[in-house]
Amino acid sequence: MAVNGKPAGGVRLEAHWRLVSWSLLDKGLPLVFGIAFVLLVVRTLPPEEFGMQALAAAMVLTASQLLRSLFLVPTIKFVAETPSPGRIAATGTLLYVAASGLAALGLAAFPGGWSRLFDKPGLAAVLLPSACLLGAGSARDAALAVLEGRRALRRLFVLDAIYYVIAIGLLAWWRASPMPRTAVAIQWMQAGAAAVGSLLALAATRDVLAARPSRAEGGRLVRFGGFAFGSGLGETLRQQADVLLAGRLLDASGVAAYGTAKLFFRGFNQLAQSIVQILMPLVSRLQAAQRTDDLRVLYEKSVCFLALALVPICAVLWLFTEPLLRLFVGERGADSVPVLRWLVVSALALPGASVGSPFLLGMGRVRTLFVITWSGLLVWFLGALVGLHHHGAAGGAAAVCVAAMFGLAARTWVLQRALGFRLRDVAGRWRDAREAIRRRLDQGLMRRRTRG
Questions:
Q1: Can you give the pLDDT at residue 386?
Q2: What burial class does residue 222 get, using C-beta atoms within 10 Å of its C-beta: 0-12 exposed, 13-18 middle, 19+ buried?
Q3: What is the pLDDT of residues 102-119, one digit of tens each?
Q4: Rounded (10°) CA dihedral 263, 269, 273, 278
C-alpha cells in the first residue's frame, strides 16, 4: 500500500544511522563527564558536601528541564518543520534565556527558604553558584536545541565536546589545587564552564539566532509549550523528584548514596534523550505527511533495536554493580549497591517508554502523554513515601522501578491502538537488526578492499 506516493514501510531506521551515531556520541559525553566527576569529585568531597552538591544539582536540572519543556521542546519541533526557522529559533532562545534568568534569581534570592524546605542548613551556601550555573548555561541549552531541530548533530557534538573538556579541566584543576573541598567550589567550576560553553554555542548559531524575535512566534511557542509543559513537568519530576524527596527525607549521607547511584544511572537518561533527539523531528514529519504505516514500522524497529542493545547491558550492570561501584568510589559505594540495582531494572522499561514519548509528542498526542506521565508520577510518589520511610534509598529506587513499568505499559497500550502494531511484530524486527548489522559489515569490508 502506498502512502502519499511512498511505499508503506518505506522508513528504514538504519538509513538514519549517521544521525543516530552522532546523537549517541553526543549523549555519551555526559557519561564520560560523569565518570570524570566520580573520579575527581565524588572520591574527594566529604559525603555531606557531596550530598549538598547532588541536591543543588537536582534543583538546577529540575528548573532547566521544566523550562526546556515549556520553550525548547516546541522550538525543536517547529524548527524541524520550518524551512526558514530564524524567527522561531530566536524567539525560543530569548524566552528560554529570560525564563532561566528568573528561575536563577529565585534560587539565589531565597537561600534560607530553600534550605528550610529541605531541612538542610548547608544547602544555602551552594545555591548562589548553582543559580549562576543555571543562568550561565541557558544560552548554550537554547542554541543546542536549535541545532537539534535542524538536525545539525555533528556541530552539536563538537560544541558539547568542547564544553565537557573545559568542565573536566576545571574540575581537575580544582582537584590538584589547594582550593576548599566544598560543594560551593564545585558549582563555581561548573558555572564557569557553562558560561564559556554558552559563548561558543551562540557564536556557532549566530546565522540563525540573528533573526528578530517575533511576538506571534512567541505565542505559538507558548501555546504548544503549555501542553508540552504538563507532560514535561511530570517527566522532569519523575527523573529528578526522587533526589529531591530523598534530600528532604534522608540525611546527608543517605542523599550522597542515592546521588552516587544516580550518577551511574545517568547514562540511561542520556540514552533516552538521544532517542527523543532523533525520533521527535522524524515522527513530526511523518505525522504531517499522514504516513501512518511508516510510523508503525519506525516504532517497531526503534523499540526492538533498542531492546536488543539494552537488555544485555542491564544484565551485566546488575550482576557487576558491587565491583563497579567499588572500583570507582571505593567502600563508600556499598550503600549505593541496592539503589543502583533497582534503577538498572527500571531501565528495562526504556525501549518502550523512551520511544513512546517522542511518538506521542510528534503525533500531537500531548494530552495523552500528560495523563500517562502524571499517573506514573502519582504511582512513584505513593511508592516513594512508603519505600523511603521503610527502606531508605533502596526503597526510593524501587518506587522508581514500579513507576517506570507503569509508564511502559501505558504508552504501549495507547500507541498500539493508534498505530496497530502487534508485540509479535515488534519482536520480529530482530531480523531487520541482523540485516542492518550485516549490511554495515559488508559496506565496511567493501571500503577496505577498495582502499587496498
A1: 86
A2: middle
A3: 999 999 999 889 998 888
A4: 120
Q: State the helix-helix crossing angle for 73-81 and 350-362, rounded to 10 degrees.
A: 60
Which residues neighbour 281 within 8 Å (Cβ) at sequence distance 6 or greater?
Answer: 76, 77, 80, 81, 148, 149, 151, 362
- From residue 265, give the alpha-carbon distance in Å to each of 74, 239, 331: 27, 11, 19
pLDDT of residue 3: 38
8 Å CB contact between 45 and 53:
yes
CA distance 232 to 230: 5
52 near 126, Cβ under 8 Å?
yes
Looking at residue 256, its pLDDT comes to 67
Instruction: Report, as ranges of residue numbers, the positions in the chain whose pLDDT lies below 50.
Output: 1-10, 13, 15
Neighbouring CB atoms inside 10 A of 373's CB total 24
* pTM of full prediction above 0.90: no
Which of 408, 50, 24, 418 shows the shortest CA–CA distance to 238? 408
d(CA 385, CA 399): 9
Phi, psi of 111, deg, nearest 5: -65, -40
d(CA 48, CA 255): 8
Rounded CA separation 57/41 (Å)? 14
Instruction: Report which of 89, 96, 84, 74 is spatially closest to residue 280, judged by C-alpha positions.
Output: 74
Cα 400 vs. chain centroid, distance in angstroms?
16
Q: What is the pLDDT of residue 182?
A: 94
Residue 8: per-residue pLDDT: 39
| Cβ neighbours of residue 21 closer than 8 Å, sequence gap 6 or more | none
